Amino acid sequence: MGQKGKRMSNWSSRLRRSGLALGVGALALGATAGTALAAGTAITGSGSSLQALAQSQTSPRGWDLDWTTKSSLTGESATYTSSSSGAGLARFALTSPATSLPSGALEAFVGTDDPPNSTLIANSRSASGTTPVTVPVASAPVAILVSLPTTLTTTSTSIRLTNVLLAQAYSGNVAAAGGFARNTWGALLTTAGATGVTDSNSSDLIGVEVRAGTSGTTETVQKYLNRIDPTDFTVTDGSDTWPTGTNLVGVANNGGGAEVLAVASTPGTIGYANLADAVSTTNGPFSHTLTASRQGTGRQRIAYALIQNNGTAVSSPAPTYADPIDPVIGGANARAGSSGSWSGFPTGTLTAATSWDGTTANNNAVGSETESGVTVQRYPIQAPTYDIGWDDYTVSGLSTHYANQTNTDQTARDFFAYLVDGTGFASNGGQTLLNPTGTNLIYYTALPSTILALAQQEAAFVG
Description:
By secondary structure, this protein is α/β, with parallel strands linked by helices. The chain contains 13 helices and 19 strands. The N terminus is likely disordered.
């Protein structure tokens, strides 16, 4: 059918782009003026495991269920399947060297923590006949997981890591300390200022559990470590390469939950995962307090680390640390700490083909801020996450991938408007569940106002 501008009258196109078609209960302009109105349908999405809880949480409800109760058309619903950012991108031919879409039915949207660059967007457009539209939807803190060796004891109840020490643990460069050899757990905890450190096996090396294949969470961690140590940590889109000195003990962890479970089950390792997976009782659970793991042998102690949030200084000023979940924000409902300032995001006039590649919510010197009238410490390791839909689901290139292209077009448009509190959802959209006074999705952070405005512009291109 060609692009939207070709298949819609100028009048209806202007209405849609202005958002008038998206109001709850408002006229749905899924077809050109004078034709039958589009109906809703059931759509599916897949990809980023970091988004899994935000999309599919049942009690309190996440986006899928919440939107279904608020959508403007009968029959609209969404279902999300967690896999990985790389798997999600592949569904829309957004991974190199993909030149065609997968055969068969496609999801209406995919989730990723690794937004595609302009080359991949162009390739996907060539494969589909329309443009993949990238829309930021949230950010989530990435917790650094610690699982002590069964032979090690400490009187400290939590682990505090400076940024330099964190990078050294991942690159295998922790210096000898406290009578312990380099890159051992004894040296790490001694340098971290833990008290009463003893280890009956002083040669316990720091093992590193990482995600399998292409993972947006992996890229978030590597981008953060690159800011601390650009020599050992380089960042390439879709890369899962670690420094030669990294003591990798597990590389086949598919999804955040598997990564958490691997660390909890393997004494003497560190790892990383989004906070929602880290605190899950199925996987750990991890908290800022060292507790015995139900998963590991010998019931070793596990925790997520408090991470330095004022740069790489070790004195003048002294390091300050932040918890990925802040018990102050939201009162009794502890929730994810602020995402701080995003950087590298697109500016100027946005288009359907705008790339968010290079955007980060990470800042290793974010410090504190005032939220809800109280001062809180920003947590520095944050993963922005995105959903990607098509600019036009009715093009001929997608005819074999969607059973009802017109209804899918309308439903995807409504869903993306909901995700970013777009027109019709200004006070009850998906971001509402993420804000500091919300009660639903406490392990995620709403988009900062600047990014939200851009996200709403991008969402208007979907469908």
